[in-house]
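lol forgot to send this yesterday, sorry. struct tokens for the thing we talked abt
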């Protein structure tokens, strides 16, 4: 089972700032892992646990804003909190638009950063929970036969059993059996529930092509 203790990653090239942030994070019972550069962070192993990233805007080798984009490109969906002593409004707008949780100007109050860290961790918990839910739905969908997938797609489109039977050239009784299997395997409690599952799986909203 994945570790659940949240981890706060800190990337700042100032050793005294890294130490201060590590102590601050520890003061609320969280684990902090500190890095001097973006490259150092990328090379480190990251545990499978909820967390967030406290990131200085000015870093050696790669700026924090560039690093934010690199994380997105690499599929690392870790909530980012920027801290800087050299920020400006356009920079903060760019960071927030790119998905940052917060953009704090130094010197900031400890509580401001702690609030942002808590918000970042909660966002990551929610993202991870949704990703796990979709992975589970994909696993259920993979267990369907090709015929059951066809019928699920048509049920999601709002077709009645009689209409599905006509479109697929099978009996209505056959449709009912397959439809029952779809509901059972997907663990759907109702048609609206199945529709929501289809949306989460990004299933086509158009009639499936005949295989």
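and heres what i got for the seq, position by position
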């Amino acid at each position: 089972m994945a570790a659940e203790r949240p981890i706060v990653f800190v990337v700042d090239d100032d050793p005294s700032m890294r130490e201060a942030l590590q102590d601050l994070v520890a003061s609320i019972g969280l684990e902090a892992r500190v890095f001097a550069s973006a490259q150092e962070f990328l090379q480190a192993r990251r545990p499978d646990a909820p967390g967030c990233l406290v990131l200085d805007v000015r870093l050696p080798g790669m700026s924090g804003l560039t690093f934010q984009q690199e994380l997105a490109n690499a599929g690392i969906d870790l909530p980012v909190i920027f801290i800087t002593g050299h920020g400006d409004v356009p920079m903060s707008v760019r960071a927030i638009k790119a998905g940052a949780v917060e953009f704090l100007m130094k010197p900031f109050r400890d509580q401001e950063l702690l609030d942002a860290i808590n918000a970042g961790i909660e966002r990551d918990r929610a993202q991870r929970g949704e990703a796990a839910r979709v992975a589970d739905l994909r696993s259920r969908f993979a267990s369907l036969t090709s015929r059951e997938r066809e019928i699920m797609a048509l049920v999601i489109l709002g077709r009645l059993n009689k209409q599905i039977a006509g479109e697929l050239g099978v009996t209505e009784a056959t449709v009912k059996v397959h439809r029952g299997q779809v509901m059972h395997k997907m663990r759907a409690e109702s048609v609206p529930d199945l529709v929501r599952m289809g949306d989460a799986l990004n299933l086509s909203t158009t009639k499936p092509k005949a295989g």
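Residues 143-200 form a domain with the Arc Repressor Mutant, subunit A fold (CATH 1.10.10.10). anyway ping me if u want another try
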